[in-house]
Design brief:
The protein has about 220 residues and is an all-alpha fold. The protein is built from nine helices and no strands. Helices cover about 65% and strands about 0% of the residues. The longest helix is centred in the middle third of the chain and has 28 residues.
């Protein structure tokens, strides 16, 4: 009817016209993340600023890849003749599998593409996923780091090397252009938290006798 008040805009349109402070802040942080990640991708290609260091970064990349860790842990589990060592290795295998599942789930939900300057050439393409958030290498590095420091008796210099390895693997993800900074930071937090899950669900002959009967 004439003179009637105009119908209110749908809520989603109002949000577009009047973006919230949180939305603006998140958009700004995302833009900063993308800009900084590209600037720090100094080994992303052979022609990059630190392109000559790319082979070394790729070696570091392999050291944090899931396939060597899974195969090495499984081999050690099969070859071990100590019940204590088998218990630790079985839980490490459980931790690595949990890491793969959780990272795959989060990546499938977020579906953030990898950085545009990424030059993926590690292993074969079938072993590399196309999503970026979070960094599986960073998640695995944090998880393995906490696990090793907790369950292996190491001298102080070796403990420092384990921590440095986790940090270098994580940093290499940005330097190679594989991930953005937030992918790595969230990956480290996720890996740190996943270790708590592993400790809470620790597998032992008392809690999982069927698994230990296999070895």
């Amino acid at each position: 009817p004439a003179g009637a008040a105009a119908a209110p805009l749908p809520e989603e349109d109002c949000m577009k016209l009047n973006p919230s402070f949180v939305g603006i802040a998140l958009s700004s942080l995302l833009a900063i993340d993308l800009w900084a990640s590209k600037r720090l991708g100094v080994c992303a290609a052979e022609g990059s600023a630190w392109g000559s260091a790319r082979p070394l970064m790729k070696v570091i990349e392999v050291s944090g890849h899931g396939i060597p860790w899974l195969l090495g842990t499984f081999y050690g589990l099969c070859q071990s003749d100590s019940s204590a060592a088998r218990e630790v290795l079985l839980n490490l295998l459980f931790a690595l599998l949990l890491d793969l599942v959780m990272v795959a789930v989060v990546k499938g939900l977020i579906k953030r593409p990898r950085p545009t300057h990424n030059k993926m050439d590690m292993f074969v393409t079938i072993s590399v996923d196309k999503y970026s958030f979070p960094s599986g290498h960073a998640t695995r590095a944090a998880l393995v780091c906490r696990f090793v420091l907790r369950h292996l008796v190491l001298a102080v210099p070796l403990r420092v090397l384990v921590v440095l390895w986790a940090l270098i693997v994580s940093i290499s993800r940005v330097m190679l252009g594989r991930h953005n900074m937030t992918d790595v930071l969230f990956g480290l937090l996720l890996g740190y938290a996943l270790y708590g899950v592993v400790e809470h669900c620790w597998l032992s002959p008392a809690t999982a006798p069927a698994l230990f009967a296999l070895w």
